[in-house]
Amino acid sequence: MTDKEVLVEIKNLSVVFGKGKNKFTAIDDVSFQIFKGETFGIVGESGSGKTTIGRAIMRINEVTEGQILYHGKSIQGKIPKDWDREITQKIQMIFQDPMASLNERAKVDYIVSEGLYPSKKYKDEADRQQKVRDALLNVGLLPEFSSRFPHEFSGGQRQRIGIARALVMEPEFIIADEPISALDVSIRAQVLNLLASLQQRNHLTYLFIAHDLSIVRFITDRTAVIYKGKIVELAETEKLFAHPLHPYTRALLSAVPEPNPYKEREKVVEVYDPSQHRYDENPPSFVEIEEGHFILANEEELTHYRTSLKREEKI
Amino acid sequence: MTLKKSSILGIQNLVIQFTLRGRILTAIRGISLDLYKGESLAIVGESGSGKSVLMKSIMGLLDKNGRIKQGQIIYNAQDLGKFTTEQEWLGIRGKEIAMVTQDPMTSLNPLKTIGKQIEECVVMHQGLRGKEAYAETLKLLTDVGITDVQKRYKQYPHEFSGGMRQRIVIAIAIACKPNILICDEPTTALDVTIQAQILQLLKNLQQKYGLTIVYITHDLGVVAKVADRIAVMYAGDVIEVGETHEIFFHSKHPYTWALISSLPQLGSKGEQLYSIKGTPPNLFQEIKGDAFAPRNPYALKIDFIERPPFFQVSDTHYVRTWLLDPLAPKVEPPAALQAFFAEGRQYAND
After folding, report:
1. How far is it, in rounded angstroms, from Cα A79 to Cα B60?
2. Nearest alpha carbon to residue B62 among B73, B77, B74, B46
3. CA-to-CA distance for A195 and B264, rounded, in angstroms?
4. HSE (CB half, 13 Å, CA atoms) of A252?
């Protein structure tokens, strides 16, 4: 894993909303890296801060403390204008609800090329139209659709328009915030396939934010589990699903219903009780317990996790 | 399932139509379905397949432009389809058949304390007054797993989390002691950990009150957890119905196959996930034959001409596809699905 190029690096990121009495820490000292070409997943409950991380990278939410590095350079605060313009173009976002994220009064042509206008990424009108056409073809829509309005499309097609809008900027890194939770089961598969094939074709890196673990398992290479603004466990997706260590990860995985009635009837759902940690006397830190597998734990817990890891290896 | 099953609600050859800007949309195309006492039936299907319309018709909640064109809904020897006045429905809705809706954020009144909202139903349907009604409300709150009930009684919906609000919606639904509880996507708006708790709660309440529950959902994981029987809907029709394990591991209809195949759990990383080609049919037009035929890779010629009847697979398993006709060619489900079936059937032998 070490020879991979780091695209995005998050260092001790904290995001705090409000002041004084109303202070709320949404992200609490989070650090991780996203490698070029991979799909990095963030899972957690609502209110855990997963969306805030995505929005902080998009520079929609201000960072209170810590750093976000893109290609090793900071994207926070005062930065040179051309660098600012470059990352605006290179980092794009796909939103959750295709019914709400498209301008109802604009034609598809304008929606897709909206990002192009201020960035002057096209030579002339013909070039702009060509770019829109390519983007639509790329996501499996017909170029003729560019003269239509969003309400003429189904949910799956609308999400494709949302993806085309991100693609037209020729991004490197796409933040997909619950891109398929608002879609129907059969359309989910289509959009997931599209995201996967676009990644191969355009060498994209994804940050995939979701709460549906079965989809995260299918699409991501590495996954971080976030709980109340802290990453509690981070590992390669398969490893994480096979050997979850942190009690919260275990609880989360056990709660996911499987499409097997026999298994489901017997399954015992684990419940996570945050008071089981004794962090007052023994504060936890984010440690690499084995290669590429990080966990939030204190000394006492680490020894416990190490023994259970060894036990699993033997089996 | 050795108990003799008695039907509590029977739907016979039901057709529901809507008039939209002068055009007629047939949302339900001749459904016959029985609901047995004490069971959990799950209705699965894509959005627009008519599962919510079907349930609304049972509650008398169809929109003004919708009407029952044909067929019957028999409950307690009454035909609910013939009801015309609100007065008639009031005897059924809430009292006999109650509903839990999808979004707990919007289904409660934000201006009333949750205690008052539950007590309302207790007063109206159980005829209790004053202290008795208050005591009953506290009991209901305890039943749905809320602690510190006296304090909670005086709180407003915004003081509760999503999962807690859904518990309150459930408390209101069971306050009237209904026979049938319809849960329309009861956990879609909730987190997985909360979802597991709510489903467990519904199961416990089902035993305690002897409820018959209908789940409307598109999440097959939820279905696996709670359902005794499954009815699969496509384009306003039930195309396959059977016990849970029969639908999961012995299904016969190509649409059911497609639905299960598109689960991410069946895909392997780096490969394309199965997805159904094409789009669902336009319900403004009359549908000839099997509605799924144009998207069905196994479609036969007759699929485009005549609507298939229900073929019986077992005592409980019925499928609407011509593929089961003795004259039809033998068709095997896709390879990935066969592996899934085999794995599932192994569990059954344990």
Report:
1. 62
2. B73
3. 14
4. 28
Residue type at A294? F
CA B228 vs CA A197, B246, B297: distances in Å? 38, 10, 30
Per-residue model confidence as pLDDT tens digits over B110-153:
999 999 999 998 998 888 888 999 999 999 999 998 888 999 99
User: Which secondary structure element, helix H or strand E, spans residue B35, and what is its range?
Assistant: strand B23-36
Nearest CA in chain A to B342: A260
Q: Which of residues 42-81 of B touch A (CB under 8 A)?
A: 46-47
Within chain A, residue ranges assigned H as helices are: 50-57, 81-90, 108-113, 116-119, 125-138, 155-167, 185-202, 213-219, 237-242, 247-255, 261-266, 299-314
pLDDT value at A197 more than 80: yes
Which of A193, A240, A262 is the mutation pick for testing B, counting most B CBs within 10 A?
A262
Residues of A in contact with B264 (CB under 8 A): 188-189, 192, 214-215, 217-219
CB-based contact, B278 to chain A, within 8 Å: no
Tens-place pLDDT, residues B293-340 = 998 989 899 999 999 999 999 999 999 999 998 888 888 888 889 989
B347–A262: do the CB atoms touch at under 8 Å? Answer: yes
Please state the domain extents for chain B.
257-349
Structural domains in chain A, sorted by start: 6-243 (3.40.50.300)
Per DSSP, A109 falls in state H
**DSSP-derived 3-state class of residue B4:** coil
- Cβ distance A46 to B191 less than 8 Å, yes or no, reads yes
pTM (whole model) above 0.90: no
Q: Please determine, for residue B3, whether its predicted confidence score (pLDDT) is greater than 60.
A: no
Cβ distance of B220 and A262 shorter than 8 Å:
no
- With an 8 Å Cβ cutoff, is B274 touching chain A? yes
The one-letter amino acid at B269: K
Q: How far apart are CA A143 and CA A113, in angstroms?
A: 13
Which residue type is seen at B187? T
Q: What are the pLDDT digits (tens) for A155-170?
A: 888 999 999 999 999 9
Structure confidence at residue A3 (pLDDT)? 65
